[in-house]
Amino acid sequence: MRAGLLAGRPRGQLVVDAEGLTKRFGATLALDGFDLAVPEGTVCGLLGPNGAGKSTAVRILSTLLRPDGGHASVAGFDVLRDPMQVRYRVGLAGQHPAVDGVLTGRENLEMFARFYRLGPAAARRRASELIEQFDLAEAAGRRPKGYSGGMRRRLDLAISFIMAPPVLFLDEPTTGMDPGHRLEVWKGVRALVAEGATVLLTTHYLDEADQLADSITVIDHGRAIARGAPEELKSALGGDRIDVLVSEPGDVPEVARLLAEVTGDSPEIHEDTRWVGVAADDRVATLARVARALDEHGLAVRDIVLRRPTLDEVFVQVTKDVRP
C-alpha cells in the first residue's frame, strides 16, 4: 500500500462509527478488523472488489447482521445494544429490490409509508412525490413483477426515501439503470444530503463515487486499505498523468521509450489501443518536454492529454498492493 492512502479518522461528529468489526461465515473471514468513520451530512463511498466485505459491513451497520467482534454505532446508537433506535433512523436499499410483486408500484409506496405511520392522505401524497422524483408515473399502476430490473431498482430506492431518513445506506443503488435514471438517483441523494442526511454508498461505478462521495473508503479482504477524499486519493497515487495516442502502431515502443527517458518514469503501455501513459509530476512543464521530444524525433501522435488520475486507477493500484 502506498503511503498516505490510509489517513487518520476524520474530525467532527460521526454518524457512522465502526472500529475493529469482524465477521466470519464458516471458514470465510468476511470482515477482519474493519474500521469506518462517516461524518454527519456527508456521503461516504465504500469501494472494493466482489467479496471484499462491503455488503457484510452494510448489513451489520443496518442491524441485519451481528458482528463477531468490534463495535459500531449509527446516529449515536450502538448497533448491538440499541438496534431499534438505529432502525428508526436509517433507510436501506439493498442489492436486491425488496418490493411486493402483487401490489402495484403506487400501492407498494403507500403501504411502506403506512408502515412508517403516515396517515392515508400523507401516504398518498408522499407516494405521488416519489413517483414523480423517480420517473415511475408510467409504471405506478402496474405490478413490479412486470417491471424491468432497473425500474424495480428505482421503486426500491423510492421506498428507502419515504421518510427522508437522517442516515441512508445504499448498496449498489444504480446497478442495472440506464445513465438517465442514474442521474435521477444522484439528484435524489444530493437533495437528501443538502437537507442534512448522511449517506453510505457502496458501488461498482467509480464515476458514481467520484460524483457523489465526500470521502471514500476502499475495502479488501475485510479491511480498510485506503481512505480519503477522492482528490486526496488521486493525488496520493502520484500526481497528474500524460496520455499519448500514437498514430502508427509500430511507433508505440519508441514513444514509450521516449516518455520514459523524458520523465524518468516507467510508462503504462496499451498496444491494442496505441495509448501510452506516464506520470507528470510538474504538469505543464512535463507536457511541454514530452511534446518537444516527440516533435524532435518525428513521432506522429493523434492526441496528447494532461489529466488527473482516475478513481479507477486508484482502485486498481491499492487493491493490487494488498493482494498476493
TrEMBL record:
A single MF term (Gene Ontology): ATP binding
GO biological process: daunorubicin transport; doxorubicin transport; response to antibiotic
Keyword check for Membrane: yes
Bilayer topology term: Peripheral membrane protein
Location in the cell: Cell membrane
CC terms in the record's Gene Ontology section: plasma membrane
Record's keyword terms, sorted: Antibiotic resistance, ATP-binding, Cell membrane, Membrane, Nucleotide-binding, Translocase, Transport
Family matches, as SMART domains: AAA (SM00382)
Protein name: ATP-binding cassette domain-containing protein
Species for this entry: Phytoactinopolyspora mesophila
